[in-house]
């Protein structure tokens, strides 16, 4: 047995790099959509580990997959392939536009692979001039230096020295601005099919179609970052399936592992051929434990039952939030798709989303923010109706305190 030291939130400040500022309480146990902290206080979880715990905490199918695989084989590296990775890749390609999969360990790594592949594809096919990558203001694609530079928030990418080049940004939903930037030098467009971190902002239908047309016109690849929107979050396996637009490359992570770290880049056979042996890699990518868990998540999530359930839960969330708003008038907009929902605060509460998050936690419900003025909800895709109502009742008490 290991010697279990007693630790508290104060320990964090003593031993951790201060790049995070976590809550004062420390969660120790979760079951479904409920979580308990060290003191035994119970919370309803509407945060879902930032859109990760798509089947809640400790789902039996995931626990079973993890323990079964844990007793068989943990790790090999990519010197060998393994059965869980092959099965998961087979299921992902059968269920999507893609023919080929590259496994990574996070969303940033899946996007990093997507960007490197796009650059290599363009170099091979058109030469070194075709290197321009265009992305969108307020977009978020991860924290590696390439992905954070492609992300549309300079505050996250500044201060680390020279950035990767040939990356430009325009406003989301502004097709004319995008068109003005594009040329035969454009290698790829990277976008979220619904901006999550940037404030839960949906694309206009004509905008997404227009982006696809511009990519086709200039021989540029369309990369969808579905790290947050993917794996059932918006009510289809991937968000692109409801948009009528198919990307060339898709990045998946977060819900893909349901809480076990894994990322995946999906693409066509023709594009994938440009990542020849040795061009890219990862020691852990395609790890058997991660893939076994993700396969179990896939089997539960990719069913009509669960996906239709996401839409029903979306309606319950939206109508109940509207009822809260009728009483307190704190939101100017309640939006989002499936169980990636945002409530934007009125001008009076501008910049105060974090106060709502803290007040909600004090009432026993975990929520997220998306920027300074949007409260974000990304619960389990199978959260029971009763937990939604109980969590929103607690949330209403928090709202009453701040608005009263
Ligand atoms: C969370 C997120 C990422 C980064 O994923 P990590 O696993 O933290 O690297 C990238 N893109 C989007 C859209 C995300 O929401």
UniProtKB/TrEMBL annotation:
It comes from the Bacteria. GO terms for cellular component: cytoplasm. Transmembrane segments: none annotated. Pathway: Amino-acid biosynthesis; L-arginine biosynthesis; N(2)-acetyl-L-ornithine from L-glutamate: step 4/4. Binds 1 pyridoxal phosphate per subunit. Its main location: cytoplasm. It is found in: Cytoplasm. GO terms for molecular function: identical protein binding; N2-acetyl-L-ornithine:2-oxoglutarate 5-aminotransferase activity; pyridoxal phosphate binding. The keyword Glycosyltransferase does not apply. N(2)-acetyl-L-ornithine binds at residues 143, 282. Pyridoxal 5'-phosphate binds at residues 107-108, 140, 225-228, 283. It holds the Pfam family Aminotran_3. One of its GO terms (biological process) is L-arginine biosynthetic process. Keywords: Amino-acid biosynthesis, Aminotransferase, Arginine biosynthesis, Cytoplasm, Pyridoxal phosphate, Transferase. Homodimer. HAMAP family: ArgD_aminotrans_3. Belongs to the class-III pyridoxal-phosphate-dependent aminotransferase family. ArgD subfamily. May also have succinyldiaminopimelate aminotransferase activity, thus carrying out the corresponding step in lysine biosynthesis. This is Acetylornithine aminotransferase. It comes from Pseudidiomarina maritima. The gene is argD.
């Amino acid at each position: 047995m290991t010697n279990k030291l007693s630790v508290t939130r104060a320990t964090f400040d003593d031993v951790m790099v201060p790049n995070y500022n976590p809550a004062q309480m420390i969660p120790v146990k979760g079951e479904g959509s409920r979580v308990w902290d060290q003191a035994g206080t119970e919370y309803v979880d509407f945060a879902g580990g930032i859109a990760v715990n798509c089947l809640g905490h400790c789902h039996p199918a995931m626990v079973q997959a993890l323990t079964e695989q844990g007793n068989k084989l943990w790790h090999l590296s990519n010197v060998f392939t393994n059965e869980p990775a092959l099965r998961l890749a087979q299921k992902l390609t059968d269920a999507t536009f893609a023919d080929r999969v590259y496994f990574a360990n996070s969303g940033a790594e899946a996007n990093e692979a997507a960007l490197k592949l796009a650059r290599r594809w363009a170099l091979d096919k058109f030469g070194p001039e075709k290197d321009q990558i265009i992305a969108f203001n307020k977009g978020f694609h991860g924290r590696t230096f390439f992905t954070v530079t492609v992300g549309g928030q300079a505050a996250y990418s500044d201060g680390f020295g020279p950035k990767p080049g040939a990356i430009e940004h325009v406003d989301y939903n502004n097709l004319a601005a995008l068109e003005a930037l594009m040329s035969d030098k454009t290698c790829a467009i990277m976008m979220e099919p619904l901006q999550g971190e940037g404030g839960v902002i949906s694309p206009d239908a004509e905008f997404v179609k227009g982006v696809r047309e511009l990519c086709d016109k200039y021989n540029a690849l369309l990369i969808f970052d579905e790290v947050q929107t993917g794996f059932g979050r918006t009510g289809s396996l991937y968000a692109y399936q409801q948009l009528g637009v198919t990307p060339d490359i898709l990045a998946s992570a977060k819900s893909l592992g349901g809480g076990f770290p894994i990322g995946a880049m999906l693409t066509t056979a023709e594009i994938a051929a440009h990542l020849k042996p040795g061009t890219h890699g990862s020691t852990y990518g395609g790890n058997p434990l991660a893939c076994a868990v993700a396969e179990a998540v896939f089997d539960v999530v990719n069913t009509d039952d669960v996906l239709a359930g996401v839409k029903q839960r979306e309606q319950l969330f939206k109508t109940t939030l509207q009822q809260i708003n009728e009483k307190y008038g704190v939101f100017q907009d309640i939006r989002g798709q499936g169980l990636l929902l945002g409530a934007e605060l009125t001008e009076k509460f501008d910049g105060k989303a974090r106060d709502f998050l803290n007040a909600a936690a004090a009432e026993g419900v975990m929520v997220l923010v998306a920027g300074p003025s949007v409260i974000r909800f990304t619960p389990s895709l199978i959260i029971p109706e009763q937990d939604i109502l109980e969590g929103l009742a607690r949330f209403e008490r928090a709202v009453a305190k701040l608005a009263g």
